[in-house]
């Protein structure tokens, strides 16, 4: 069984396209990153998966249960954690009180451990919390019932670098316990760090689905070389050289060829400096953002009228 499965999932808000014809699956135990520029449809996908808005077309299952079937969705959500991008927490109560409330709703398997890990100031009223502290409390609430699948909408927004690192470590630990993650992001470095696979959405459509390691392997390495001699582009007519920028005594390019051939070639020069590094993720992903073909025109009309949105509640 897939943790998440969508088939032709579509959501229009009136005439405005949210997502169109999304089909993908997330395997159990996988950490899946859902990437795309602003307005691409990431939040709409998450809200549709969680039943906060009804799809206009297509279907989706969470942990094998149809998200448009209310009873099935309630059952699925007992095993699902959700971290919204702006957790709308009740501001007039203490963090401790909210934790107790959530414990009564969905159970509490591990709030003590999570509080130790994320350390939000639980004795204070949530209204006095900083954005980062709200996010820490939201993390405790999202994980306290020990969910099998966790859906997170831009989880690191609002966290300082130290807390971001702590969250990445936590995701790693959870992954080794078999928890499945689906999270949206536009922070490319975090995708590199924690995701097994990424789906890239643009203008409401899925434009790529990639294994992160394979994607980086295929993209090759960035090479920078400085030599004593003057250089021109003809000096780098070697198989596997792309995006060449050759200056007077230095050159930089993407390389997908054989290293031996490159090193043999460089031996003809007096090399002053040589750097070979992983392709910058920005370059790798931007081509999907900018050039990937959309399957249909951006303004194609919905086939059915938008269904009414359900109320948004935490799970
Ligand atoms: N409630 C709504 N009513 C009307 N249009 C909406 C609504 N929510 C989203 N949209 C539209 O749907 C499209 C997808 O928006 P969505 O918020 O899902 O994108 P996103 O990828 O999450 O963007 P961001 O990274 O900026 O959060 C956008 O054109 C947006 O304007």
UniProtKB/TrEMBL annotation:
Domain ABC transporter: 4-228
Presence of keyword Cell wall biogenesis/degradation: no
Pfam families xref list: ABC_tran
Low complexity biased stretches: 297-309
SUPFAM superfamilies documented for this protein: P-loop containing nucleoside triphosphate hydrolases
Annotated keywords: ATP-binding, Nucleotide-binding, Transport
Matches recorded under InterPro entries: AAA+_ATPase, ABC_transporter-like_ATP-bd, ABC_transporter_ATP-binding, P-loop_NTPase
Single GO MF annotation: ATP binding
CDD domains (UniProt xref): ABC_DR_subfamily_A
Residue ranges of the region described as Disordered: 293-315
Superkingdom in the source lineage: Archaea
Entry's family note: Belongs to the ABC transporter superfamily.
Protein name, entry field: ABC transporter ATP-binding protein
């Amino acid at each position: 069984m897939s943790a998440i499965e969508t088939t032709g999932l579509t959501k229009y808000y009136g005439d405005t396209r949210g997502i169109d014809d999304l089909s993908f699956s997330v395997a159990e135990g996988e950490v899946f990153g859902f990437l795309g520029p602003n307005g691409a449809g990431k939040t709409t996908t998450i809200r549709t998966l969680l039943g906060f808005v009804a799809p206009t077309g297509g279907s989706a299952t969470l942990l094998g249960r149809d998200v448009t079937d209310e009873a099935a969705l309630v059952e699925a959500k007992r095993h699902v954690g959700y971290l919204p991008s702006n957790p709308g927490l009740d501001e007039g109560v203490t963090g401790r009180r909210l934790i107790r409330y959530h414990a009564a709703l969905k159970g509490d398997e591990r709030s003590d451990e999570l509080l130790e890990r994320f350390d939000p100031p639980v004795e204070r009223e949530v209204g006095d919390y900083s954005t980062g502290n709200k996010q820490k409390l939201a993390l405790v609430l999202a994980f306290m019932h020990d969910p099998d699948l966790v859906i997170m909408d831009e989880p690191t927004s609002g966290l300082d670098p130290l807390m971001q690192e702590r969250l990445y470590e936590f995701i790693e630990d959870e992954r080794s316990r078999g928890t499945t993650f689906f999270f949206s992001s536009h922070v490319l470095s975090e995708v590199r760090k924690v995701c097994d696979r990424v789906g890239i959405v643009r203008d409401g459509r899925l434009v790529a689905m990639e294994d992160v390691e394979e994607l980086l392997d295929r993209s090759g390495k960035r090479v920078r070389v400085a030599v004593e001699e003057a250089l021109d582009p003809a000096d780098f007519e070697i198989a596997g050289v792309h995006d060449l920028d050759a200056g007077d005594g230095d050159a930089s390019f993407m390389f997908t060829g054989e290293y031996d051939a490159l090193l043999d070639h460089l031996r003809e020069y007096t090399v002053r400096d040589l750097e070979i590094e992983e392709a910058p993720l920005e370059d790798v992903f931007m081509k999907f953002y900018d050039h990937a073909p959309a399957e249909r025109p951006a303004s194609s009309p919905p086939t059915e009228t938008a269904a009414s949105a359900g109320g948004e509640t935490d799970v």
